[in-house]
Amino acid sequence: MATNTEKNRSHWDEAASTYNTKYSKTINQIIKEIQTRKDWIGVDWAEDVSDDENTSSSVPKKTVRLLDYACGTGLVSRALAPYVTQCIGIDLTEGMVNEYNTSAQNQGIPATEIHAYQGNLIDPSQPTPAALSGKEFFDFDIAVVGLGFHHFDQPALAAKRLAERLKQGGVLMIVEFMPHEHFHGHNAAKTVTHMGFSEEEVKKMFEEAGCGGDFRYLEVGKGKIAFGEGQDKVERSVFFARGSKL
Ligand SMILES: C[S@@+](CC[C@H](N)C(=O)[O-])C[C@H]1O[C@@H](n2cnc3c(N)ncnc32)[C@H](O)[C@@H]1O
């Protein structure tokens, strides 16, 4: 029987090329919500650096690095790119990584600023995959998972593995669905492992991962989403949660 990781891999590889068009409305809404709440997220963003004329040009510019985990086509990176100096995406599937990188290339953004890699940080048997062990994959100011936790076998392990990639004081954030009824009718349903997350559940996961500092959970809105061609729309409430690495 296919493991959940294999199910995710085959489903999302196939879904990658149509993801942006199929979910364009939801993607754009969530990007807007993230940008509106950038102060709530609580990172000292790159744009906040004041241009001091007396600063010698040899002083390095402040860097703010984003890890966009389970990045898909790049929703979270698109939302936060204006406020960080580097976005690194990681996704399980080659299809999603290609979509992410093609979109950055098409906008003329160099790979040193925005680039995604294929990989899996939440394989219980492999704490640090060799391909993701370089220093560029550590010391992030913020790690975000956009709508990925409900597809993971072990979201609590994901929180721990992502916490390891943050610098002290760095922010772990998820964009997720609030608890809801299971909906069986869509293609991605086979990859869904969790029917949303309550505030208590997320708080516990974040605390156990060492990211319980200044924990916040915020409902950002309800929307109706059709998960498949010809499928009825189902209502989902989206929340953001954030915690700082202690
Ligand atoms: C619903 S999509 C979300 C994509 C994107 N973050 C967004 O908000 O639009 C879920 C993504 O999780 C990825 N994924 C699933 N399991 C994963 C794992 N173990 N590690 C990394 N990515 C994973 C899938 O390949 C897919 O791109």
Overview of the molecule:
The protein has helices at residues 4-22, 24-36, 38-41, 75-80, 94-106, 155-163, 199-208; strands at residues 65-69, 86-91, 114-118, 140-146, 166-177, 213-225, 234-244. By secondary structure, it is of the alpha/beta class. It has a seven-stranded mixed β-sheet with strand order 3-2-1-4-5-7-6, sandwiched between helices. Helix 5 (94-106) links the parallel strand 2 (86-91) and strand 3. Helix 1 (4-22) runs parallel beside helix 5 (94-106). It starts with a helix and ends with a strand. S-adenosylmethionine binds at residues 5, 8, 12, 70-72, 75-76, 91-93, 96, 120, 122, 146-148, 151-152. S-adenosylmethionine is lined by residues 5, 8, 12, 70-72, 75-76, 91-93, 96, 120, 122, 146-148, 151-152. This is S-adenosyl-L-methionine-dependent methyltransferase. InterPro entries: SAM-dependent_MTases_sf. Keywords: Methyltransferase, Transferase. One of its GO terms (molecular function) is methyltransferase activity.
Element layout with pairings:
Layout: H1 4-22, H2 24-36, H3 38-41, E1 65-69, H4 75-80, E2 86-91, H5 94-106, E3 114-118, E4 140-146, H6 155-163, E5 166-177, H7 199-208, E6 213-225, E7 234-244
Bound molecules: S-adenosylmethionine (SAM).
What's this model, at a glance?
The chain has 246 residues and is an alpha/beta fold. It is built from seven helices and seven strands.
Rg (CA only): 18 Å
Class computed from helices, strands and strand pairing = alpha/beta
Uncertain residue ranges: none
Biggest sheet details: 7 strands, mixed
CATH C-level label: Alpha Beta
> What is the helix content?
25-40%
Share of β-strand residues:
15-25%
Classify the fold: give the CATH topology: Rossmann fold
Q: What is the count of helical runs?
A: 7
Annotated CATH homologous superfamily: Vaccinia Virus protein VP39
Overall number of strands: 7
Terminal CA distance reads 40 Å
Strand arrangement in the largest pleated sheet:
3-2-1-4-5-7-6
Ligand set: S-adenosylmethionine
